[in-house]
Amino acid sequence: MDYDALAAELRKLRENVAGVTDTVLAASDGIPILTDVAKNVEPAHISALAAADLGIARQASEVIGLGKLSQTVVFGSEGYMAVYSISRTALMVVLGDKGLNLGRLLHETRPAIERIGSIMTT
């Protein structure tokens, strides 16, 4: 796996989307693979929470008949946590402050997820 290419993708998201503060790539079981986080963010905790969030949302999507889950977004009074399914075995977490541009994030993450998925499978 090309960790430098993955790190570049995470960095590009932070640079291209206003309000992105932290990014994490993790296995679907919640174990961090690669992180770009501030000192006050614990990647293992974020990864575990994101895996649980995505697992529950994936089940809900399947049971309700909404099709394949692509993402969840947690809206908080101080910011956001977006969790994206890279594959059945990997996920990406993007944390953002109150100024996060959600439209821009959606626009930038779709191609980034494809590139990250491709990097992770080679």
Care to describe what's here?
Helices cover 46% and strands 28% of the residues. The model has no long low-confidence stretch (mean pLDDT 92). It has helices at 3-16, 43-64, 102-121, and strands at residues 20-27, 32-36, 71-76, 79-85, 90-97. It is an alpha+beta fold and 122 residues long. α1 packs antiparallel against α3 (102-121). The chain starts with a helix and ends with a helix. Strands 2-1-5-4-3 form a 5-stranded antiparallel sheet, sandwiched between helices.
H/E element string?
HEEHEEEH
Rg (C-alpha, Å) = 13 Å
Query: Uncertain segments of ≥5 residues (pLDDT<50)?
Result: none
Across the major sheet, the strand order is: 2-1-5-4-3
Termini separation comes to: 6 Å
Based on Cα principal axes, name the global outline: globular
Characteristics of this structure?
five-stranded antiparallel beta sheet; 3 helices
How is the topology of this model organized?
Layout: H1 3-16, E1 20-27, E2 32-36, H2 43-64, E3 71-76, E4 79-85, E5 90-97, H3 102-121
Helix pairs in contact: 1-3
How would you sum up this structure in a few lines?
The chain has 122 residues and is α+β, with helices and mostly antiparallel strands. 46% of the residues lie in helices and 28% in strands. A five-stranded antiparallel beta sheet has the order 2-1-5-4-3, sandwiched between helices.
